[in-house]
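ok trying this again, last paste got cut off
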Amino acid sequence: MVVCVCNAIRESQVRDAARAGSLTPCQMYRALGRQPKCGQCAVVARAIIDEERTAA
């Protein structure tokens, strides 16, 4: 699933960034070498990151 249309970030990339230590959407963007644009994806990205942190 595409989480961020502006940056073409997929759910798997968000999960990988979370597993690598990203705790926030901003950290995820930095880890992926991207910058936030419209911000619409932040809520979904945060939910995925939180899910990965809970599973760890």
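PB: full thing came through this time. The CA atoms of residues 2 and 10 lie 4 Å apart.
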